3-hydroxyisobutyryl-CoA hydrolase
Amino acid sequence: MAEPEILFERRGHAGLVTLNRPGALNALSHGMVTALAQALEGWRDDPEIRLVIVRAVGRAFCAGGDIRAVYEAGQGSPAQKAFFEAEYRLNAAIKAFPKPYVALIDGYVMGGGAGISVHGSHRVFAEKAVFAMPETGIGFFPDVGSSFFLSRMPSHTGLYCALGAIRLARGDALHAGIATHAAPAAAFDAIVARLAESDDVDAVISEFAEPAAPETLGSLALAIEAVFATGSVESILARLDALQGPLADWGGGTAAAIRGKSPTSLRIALRQIRAAGELAFEDCIRLDWRIANAILDGHDFYEGVRAALVDKDQSPRWNPATLDAVDPGVIEGHFVAPLDGDIPLP
């Protein structure tokens, strides 16, 4: 019998969640999403449970939602929208969870993995933790409520991460507010044991916390601010192309990364994240639902997943293939409520 993809136990007065799908980098299946939502619902009002801890088995915390399963369900399948509805409702439940929610993160935390960690109260990053929202590279968009925190990261770093699918190591994640603490992976078991018996989450984590200086964002903050603060995708690219001297290599590499992404996704992500800075969290989730419904009816998501995860040729054929060919009316259609209405939130 196969092991469960997600494990739950009571450890002292902690509800302990273990993502247990290491062969798939703990990508979230529909079943995992549903099970976690049910566990949180039970623990929310349980007086014996004072906090929740989420950890993972293997070399990734969670590399995202199981996008390949969404792809294989087929365009127009009810299973596709059912997965995203369940996932987005889970993200909202985590954001609103009334007790401490501690994510112990080592390895990749991307996409849907950010959705089940960054919205919680405490995010402890180990040495090999790497954060990214890589969705523009598969013809999708930064979802799971990520626009809420991406739009609030310092120096427009969130937009930089979203357009270029930029990866942040531990120190950068701490600097940007994605992580709340840094601690060694070797201490995670001890942290779990102490949290299960303590009433002071902050004090326990602080005992194990260690400093982590930003790897890149400290030196790049002014440049990121200058490049990404205003304007269209084209103007951002132009500013990157124009950088000279010590910033030329960074500018050229970032511009190349952005140019490799879906033009439609780039336009969507730019508008989405700029709008999210003025939105409450639940409105960001509703916006995600609108965009996801429209994107699932389009072309680039299926082509992006094919190129990245199915054929693995890493050569997506985007349609439209260039930014100037993207119809503004099509982009506008991603920001209106679907015919069956906005997502019902708990």
The beta strands are 6-11, 14-19, 51-56, 60-62, 101-105, 108-110, 122-125, 130-132, 168-169, 181-182. The CA atoms of residues 110 and 132 lie 5 Å apart.
